Amino acid sequence: MSVKLIEVRDLSVNYQGFKAISQVSFDVEEGDYIGIVGPNGSGKTTLIKAILGLVPFEGSIKFDGLSLREFTLKHHIGYLPQRLSFIDSKFPALAKEIIVSGVYCCKIFPKRISRQDYKLAEEIIDILGIKSISDTPIGILSGGQQQRVLLARALVHRPEILILDEPTVALDPKIREVFYSTINKINKERSVTVILVSHDIASIGNYASKLLYLDRKLIFYGTFEEFCKSTEMGDYFGYSQHFICHRHQ
Amino acid sequence: MIEIFQQILEGLSYVFIQRAIVAGCFIALGCASLGVFLVLRRFSLIGDGLAHVSFATVAIALLLNAHPMIISLILVGLVSLLILKLNEKAKVYGDTAIGLISSVGIAIGVIITSSFGGFNIDLFSYLFGNILLLSRLEVILTIFISLLVILIVVLFYHDLFAITFDEDYARVSGIKVGMVNKILILLTSLIVVLGIKIVGTMLVSSMIILPAISALQIMPSFRGTILIAGFLGVISVVIGILLSYILNLPSGATIVLINFFIFIILFLFGKLNIIKSKSL
Fold it and tell me: How confident is the model at residue B255 (pLDDT cuts 50, 70, 90)?
């Protein structure tokens, strides 16, 4: 039986009077791989930030039946933010230091990093194939390499839920497919629930168990097959629906 | 050469030089422990802003006939929290909040000095500092507070690192970002107040910024950068004090110029290093 992990009800986010998203409701079940898609400015990142408690919102978000305020075990969540344009080329930390910082969430004051933590980091570095860059300053890595380092940071503490915001923007098509299949493997083999924001419906459709189409409000929530068969989506997209689904096949 | 060596030894035999070196080294370590975080968070000018505020607080203390350092520790600490609040709540940009408070600080200082004369000479010594005139109590206070700052930075190192790199991720990780920001800014106000006696209100921010940006030219690792910044700060203080003694120059300004000289050398070194790194 599937277990409800996240419950979102009537979620609205306002930015100084501007409604970024309005009345969004959906459930995420354990082991789901949700692809959040939609046009630019549709509120995808805002939705993710609301789920993570990074922006104020109206409505309710529950993790394991607990409200965001009550849900204090943040170490259940791994988060890969949108392309980090803020990574300064002069930022002095090594990739390894950034990866290990993923375990801070599981530590109590005064935080100390143990050998076990470094072992976990080494393990994830091997899985993602980034050993050769782990001793390089993060600022001088390419966008794709930085993205993989940040994915390693999100995974190092073995989260139950992995939330990724446009993780493939900086990647070339070949690496993008490797990235998607790595996330897919993590979802299947480690039973990690994945919520991934993307603007590329066709690619994410190959992997996600459900698609959530957002355009400031919830337009569609279901499987990719349902998306392709939906006449409502056909009306919404016109010919584009066939194009997306054809690319998928 | 031997003559210079003899002058150094002679200088080191004086108690006021020994005090200056000890206090200066501790404050350099305190500044370095905060500097890297402040520079990377684009908050480095807070040292400058708080130093300008300390000009007013020193004037207030002299007016009230109280100890300038103690009065400044309290008032500058409160103002540092006000800057943070302006930034967070009033949606005033960080640099604007610093500029606002800084100019108000200078204005208050100028009004007090022009309205209630009689302590202009004392105030002048705080404007440009005089590390060679530190009292025993001031040395002890400097060592104690510098150690306190370093200890708190060590205890909160991982939180500060996480917030400096990615504030949103730090929040998601459950780090109390607001509290850690308050701690960082309060520690900065402590170090600024200590620094005004050494290099003066006009130059104290350079003790925070210069060793940090010099160390950033090398960037071995995050922890390594902080340690190098501390080392460079200490070297600048020792060379600066001894050079100012030998050449009869103002100590604070000499320390700052040594810091700048080190930055130029490492900047050139860093340029070469970056060319190497880009070929990765």
Answer: very high
Token pair in block for residue A247: 């690319």
> Which residues, in sequence order, are CB contacts of B110 under 8 Å at separation 6+?
none
CATH entry 1.20.1050.10 includes domain B2-271: no
Query: Residue B185 in contact with residue B80, Cβ under 8 Å?
Result: yes
Kindly list the residues of chain A whose beta carbon comes within 8 Å of any beta carbon in chain B: 49, 52-54, 72, 74-75, 77, 79, 81, 84, 86, 88, 90-94, 97-98, 101-102, 104-105, 107, 109-111, 113, 133, 136-137, 139-140, 153
Interface contact B225, partner A, CB < 8 A: yes
User: Of the candidates B216, B225, B277, which has its C-beta nearest A140's C-beta?
Assistant: B277
Q: Is B103 in CB contact (< 8 Å) with chain A?
A: no
The partner residue sitting opposite A140, judged by closest CB among B40, B162, B278, is B278
Contact A105 B172 (CB under 8 A): yes
pLDDT digits (tens, 9 = 90+) for B114-166: 887 666 666 777 777 778 888 888 899 899 999 999 999 999 999 999 999 99
Smallest CA–CA distance, residue B75 to chain A, in Å, is 29
How many CB pairs lie under 8 A apart between chains A and B?
85
Whether B29 and B233 have beta carbons less than 8 Å apart is answered as yes
Domain ranges of chain A: 4-248
- Inform me whether the C-beta atom of residue B280 falls under 8 Å from chain A C-beta atoms: yes
CA distance B82 to B110: 21
A4-248: what CATH class?
alpha beta
CB-CB contact of B78 with B54 (8 Å): no
Which ipTM score applies to this complex?
0.86
Yes or no: say if A214 and A172 are a contact pair by the CB < 8 Å rule. no
Q: What are phi and psi of B194, to 5 degrees?
A: -65, -40
Which of A104, A137, A140 has its CB closest to that of B158? A104
Contact A135, B220 (CB under 8 A): no
> Quick one: tokens of B169?
């991720």
The tens digit of pLDDT for each residue in B19-54 reads: 999 999 999 999 999 999 999 988 888 888 898 899
Beta strands in chain A (DSSP E): 4-15, 18-29, 33-37, 58-63, 66-67, 77-80, 161-165, 193-197, 210-214, 218-222
| pTM (predicted TM-score) | 0.88
Task: Find the CB nearest A77 among B36, B168, B172.
Answer: B172
Of B160, B188, B157, B159, which is closest to residue B174 (Cα–Cα)?
Answer: B159
Strand partners, A196: A35, A164
Contact A101 B161 (CB under 8 A): yes
For residue A216, pLDDT over 50 is answered with: yes
Indicate the domain borders of chain B: 2-271
